[in-house]
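REVIEWER CHECKLIST
Item 1: Sequence provided? yes
Item 2: Single chain? yes
Item 3: Sequence as submitted:
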Amino acid sequence: MSCGAVDGGETVTLKSLRRVFADFDEGGKGWLTRQDLRMAMTALLGYRPSKTELHTLVPDSTGASKIDEATFVQIMSFKLSTRDTVDDIRKKFMTLDSHFRGYLMLEDILPALKSVGVPETTIHQIFVQTDTDRDGKITFKDFERMMKYP
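Item 4: Structure as written out by the authors:
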């Protein structure tokens, strides 16, 4: 993953990921616990990962429950590279907002999500969770938050 600027053969992003790892590697032990990883991901990605996500990233099969720097950099590079830009999110929002109202209602997202196989009950759950002010409308800000921090 690259941000464009290169210093000594490493991209700025790689350096910043290593810096985040070091910031949360208390005592310089060379690994992060699940709790360290949770705090690092919150700082880096802007959302608090669920227990399920943490257990997926740091399986407890060996009893160690820790992640080293190389693995952290690899996983976070992938997570950052798959995030949509604000422009991409706005285009998706505008595609769903076929009535040009500036917000989405359940009727706007239902056909699109059903067409890709999402069950209607799941669509209703997504809508309720995304509609933060419970007014029956998903604003761009709600939609952006959902797209950035699943």
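Item 5: Key structural point noted by reviewer: Residues 71 and 137 are 40 Å apart (CA to CA).
Item 6: Recommendation: ____
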